[in-house]
Amino acid sequence: METYLIQFVYYASFEHPNTGSAPIEDKEWVKAYRIIPRVGDCVFKDGEWFQVERVFLYQPSGKGIDAQAQCSFYGSDKV
To answer: pLDDT by residue (tens digit) across 40-52?
Structure first.
């Protein structure tokens, strides 16, 4: 089954409703998924949940990034 390489980005300066425990530094990570996340989907990274706000699709380019998902902070599982 085909997988897509997704670049996730979180900008601390991006306005989001859950500012109380939101990370204060920008974050970026790449992960392979079987589907490209949609706006509104949530993704988990290092004990924190991020909500996909924007998705940018790229033309297929061999082994490059297939899409970029800009995220806002959603919540934390950290105690």
So the answer is: 999 999 999 999 9
Q: How far is CA 25 from CA 2, 12, 16, 28, 29, in A?
A: 33, 6, 14, 10, 13
Task: Read off the pLDDT of residues 13-45 as tens digits, 9 standing for 90 and up.
Answer: 876 665 667 888 999 999 999 999 999 999 999
Bridge pairing between strands 4-10 and 67-76: parallel
Buried b (16+ CB within 10 A) or exposed e, 52-61: bbeeeeeeee
